[in-house]
Design brief:
- This protein is 60% helix and 9% strand.
- The chain is an alpha+beta fold and 186 residues long.
- A four-stranded antiparallel sheet has the order 2-3-1-4, sandwiched between helices.
- Helix 1 crosses helix 2.
- The two termini are 29 Å apart.
- The relative contact order is 0.10.
Protein backbone atom coordinates (compact mmCIF):
# COMPACT_ATOMS: atom_id res chain seq x y z
CA UNK A 1 0.00 0.00 0.00
CA UNK A 2 1.24 3.47 -0.84
CA UNK A 3 0.43 6.70 0.92
CA UNK A 4 1.14 10.13 -0.46
CA UNK A 5 2.38 13.05 1.60
CA UNK A 6 2.32 16.70 0.58
CA UNK A 7 5.30 19.02 1.18
CA UNK A 8 8.00 16.33 1.23
CA UNK A 9 10.54 18.22 -0.82
CA UNK A 10 13.98 17.28 0.50
CA UNK A 11 16.02 14.54 2.14
CA UNK A 12 15.40 16.07 5.58
CA UNK A 13 11.67 15.68 4.93
CA UNK A 14 12.21 11.99 4.17
CA UNK A 15 14.17 11.60 7.41
CA UNK A 16 11.46 13.37 9.43
CA UNK A 17 8.70 11.18 7.97
CA UNK A 18 10.80 8.05 8.49
CA UNK A 19 11.31 8.95 12.17
CA UNK A 20 7.59 9.64 12.58
CA UNK A 21 6.61 6.31 11.02
CA UNK A 22 9.05 4.44 13.25
CA UNK A 23 7.74 6.28 16.32
CA UNK A 24 4.16 5.40 15.33
CA UNK A 25 5.12 1.75 14.77
CA UNK A 26 4.07 1.90 11.12
CA UNK A 27 6.05 -0.57 9.02
CA UNK A 28 7.26 0.58 5.61
CA UNK A 29 9.54 -0.72 2.90
CA UNK A 30 10.43 2.46 1.01
CA UNK A 31 10.23 6.24 1.35
CA UNK A 32 10.82 8.77 -1.40
CA UNK A 33 9.76 12.37 -1.90
CA UNK A 34 5.99 12.53 -1.45
CA UNK A 35 5.45 8.78 -1.28
CA UNK A 36 5.73 5.98 1.28
CA UNK A 37 5.29 2.27 0.56
CA UNK A 38 3.76 0.62 3.62
CA UNK A 39 4.02 -3.06 4.46
CA UNK A 40 0.41 -3.27 5.63
CA UNK A 41 -2.82 -1.31 5.46
CA UNK A 42 -3.48 1.36 8.07
CA UNK A 43 -6.59 1.34 10.21
CA UNK A 44 -8.70 4.48 10.15
CA UNK A 45 -7.45 5.46 13.62
CA UNK A 46 -3.81 4.95 12.51
CA UNK A 47 -4.47 7.05 9.41
CA UNK A 48 -6.06 9.81 11.51
CA UNK A 49 -3.21 9.82 14.03
CA UNK A 50 -0.59 9.81 11.27
CA UNK A 51 -2.36 12.69 9.55
CA UNK A 52 -2.37 14.75 12.75
CA UNK A 53 1.32 14.07 13.44
CA UNK A 54 2.29 14.88 9.85
CA UNK A 55 0.48 18.23 10.11
CA UNK A 56 2.57 19.10 13.17
CA UNK A 57 5.66 18.67 10.97
CA UNK A 58 4.24 20.74 8.11
CA UNK A 59 3.18 17.79 5.95
CA UNK A 60 -0.23 16.64 4.79
CA UNK A 61 -1.53 13.14 4.16
CA UNK A 62 -3.18 13.11 0.74
CA UNK A 63 -6.34 11.10 0.29
CA UNK A 64 -7.92 11.84 -3.08
CA UNK A 65 -6.40 10.66 -6.36
CA UNK A 66 -6.31 14.09 -8.01
CA UNK A 67 -4.35 15.66 -5.16
CA UNK A 68 -2.00 12.68 -5.14
CA UNK A 69 -1.39 13.05 -8.87
CA UNK A 70 -0.74 16.80 -8.57
CA UNK A 71 1.77 16.19 -5.79
CA UNK A 72 3.41 13.43 -7.83
CA UNK A 73 3.87 15.84 -10.76
CA UNK A 74 5.39 18.44 -8.43
CA UNK A 75 7.64 15.83 -6.82
CA UNK A 76 8.90 14.60 -10.20
CA UNK A 77 9.75 18.16 -11.21
CA UNK A 78 11.53 18.86 -7.92
CA UNK A 79 13.42 15.56 -8.02
CA UNK A 80 14.55 16.33 -11.55
CA UNK A 81 15.78 19.83 -10.73
CA UNK A 82 17.36 19.16 -7.35
CA UNK A 83 18.40 15.53 -7.17
CA UNK A 84 18.90 14.24 -10.71
CA UNK A 85 22.60 14.51 -11.50
CA UNK A 86 22.02 14.06 -15.22
CA UNK A 87 20.34 16.69 -17.35
CA UNK A 88 16.83 15.92 -18.54
CA UNK A 89 17.42 14.22 -21.88
CA UNK A 90 13.80 14.49 -23.03
CA UNK A 91 11.39 17.36 -22.74
CA UNK A 92 9.33 17.79 -19.59
CA UNK A 93 6.11 16.47 -21.09
CA UNK A 94 7.75 13.22 -22.25
CA UNK A 95 9.43 12.84 -18.85
CA UNK A 96 6.08 13.15 -17.04
CA UNK A 97 4.27 10.84 -19.47
CA UNK A 98 6.95 8.18 -19.02
CA UNK A 99 6.96 8.48 -15.22
CA UNK A 100 3.18 8.65 -14.74
CA UNK A 101 1.97 6.55 -17.68
CA UNK A 102 -0.74 9.07 -18.52
CA UNK A 103 -1.52 11.34 -21.45
CA UNK A 104 0.23 14.69 -21.11
CA UNK A 105 -2.69 16.80 -22.32
CA UNK A 106 -4.89 15.26 -19.60
CA UNK A 107 -2.20 15.82 -16.98
CA UNK A 108 -1.69 19.39 -18.13
CA UNK A 109 -5.40 20.21 -18.12
CA UNK A 110 -5.95 18.69 -14.68
CA UNK A 111 -2.87 20.44 -13.26
CA UNK A 112 -3.99 23.82 -14.60
CA UNK A 113 -7.52 23.38 -13.25
CA UNK A 114 -6.31 22.20 -9.85
CA UNK A 115 -3.27 24.41 -9.27
CA UNK A 116 -4.22 27.55 -11.21
CA UNK A 117 -1.00 27.53 -13.27
CA UNK A 118 0.33 25.36 -16.06
CA UNK A 119 2.84 22.58 -15.51
CA UNK A 120 5.32 24.54 -17.61
CA UNK A 121 4.92 27.66 -15.50
CA UNK A 122 5.35 25.63 -12.32
CA UNK A 123 8.50 24.10 -13.83
CA UNK A 124 9.87 27.54 -14.69
CA UNK A 125 9.19 28.80 -11.14
CA UNK A 126 11.04 25.79 -9.73
CA UNK A 127 13.95 26.31 -12.15
CA UNK A 128 14.25 29.95 -11.11
CA UNK A 129 14.26 28.98 -7.42
CA UNK A 130 17.02 26.50 -8.21
CA UNK A 131 18.96 29.23 -10.03
CA UNK A 132 18.57 31.48 -6.97
CA UNK A 133 19.90 28.73 -4.74
CA UNK A 134 22.90 28.10 -6.97
CA UNK A 135 23.61 31.84 -7.20
CA UNK A 136 23.57 32.15 -3.40
CA UNK A 137 25.97 29.21 -3.06
CA UNK A 138 28.36 31.06 -5.38
CA UNK A 139 30.05 27.83 -6.47
CA UNK A 140 29.07 27.86 -10.15
CA UNK A 141 29.29 30.48 -12.86
CA UNK A 142 26.12 31.60 -14.59
CA UNK A 143 27.21 29.58 -17.65
CA UNK A 144 27.58 26.46 -15.52
CA UNK A 145 24.17 27.04 -13.94
CA UNK A 146 22.60 27.51 -17.38
CA UNK A 147 24.19 24.26 -18.57
CA UNK A 148 23.21 22.33 -15.43
CA UNK A 149 19.57 23.44 -15.68
CA UNK A 150 19.34 22.77 -19.40
CA UNK A 151 18.99 26.36 -20.61
CA UNK A 152 20.03 26.85 -24.22
CA UNK A 153 22.35 29.69 -23.19
CA UNK A 154 23.05 32.27 -20.46
CA UNK A 155 20.92 34.89 -22.21
CA UNK A 156 17.88 32.60 -22.07
CA UNK A 157 18.43 31.96 -18.36
CA UNK A 158 18.95 35.68 -17.66
CA UNK A 159 15.84 36.71 -19.59
CA UNK A 160 13.66 34.12 -17.86
CA UNK A 161 15.13 35.01 -14.46
CA UNK A 162 14.42 38.72 -14.96
CA UNK A 163 10.91 38.02 -16.24
CA UNK A 164 10.06 35.98 -13.12
CA UNK A 165 11.94 37.91 -10.41
CA UNK A 166 12.29 41.42 -11.84
CA UNK A 167 16.07 41.22 -11.27
CA UNK A 168 19.02 40.17 -13.35
CA UNK A 169 20.88 37.16 -11.93
CA UNK A 170 23.89 39.37 -11.16
CA UNK A 171 21.79 41.94 -9.30
CA UNK A 172 20.05 39.16 -7.35
CA UNK A 173 23.38 37.61 -6.42
CA UNK A 174 24.54 40.90 -4.93
CA UNK A 175 21.39 41.44 -2.81
CA UNK A 176 21.77 40.92 0.92
CA UNK A 177 18.26 39.47 1.30
CA UNK A 178 18.15 37.06 -1.62
CA UNK A 179 14.35 36.73 -1.66
CA UNK A 180 14.39 32.95 -2.05
CA UNK A 181 11.14 31.10 -1.51
CA UNK A 182 10.71 27.66 -0.02
CA UNK A 183 9.87 24.97 -2.55
CA UNK A 184 6.52 24.15 -0.98
CA UNK A 185 5.43 27.81 -1.23
CA UNK A 186 5.53 27.82 -5.03
Amino acid sequence: MKIYIKNMVCNRCIAAVETLLETQGILFSHIQLGEVTLLRLLTESQKQQLSEELKKLGFELLNDKTTQLMERIKTLIIENLYYNQEKLKVNLSDYLVEALHQDYSALSKLFSETEGITIEHYYILQKIERVKELLVYNELTLSEIAFQLNYSNVAHLSNQFKKVTGFTPTYFKNLKDNKRRQIDEL
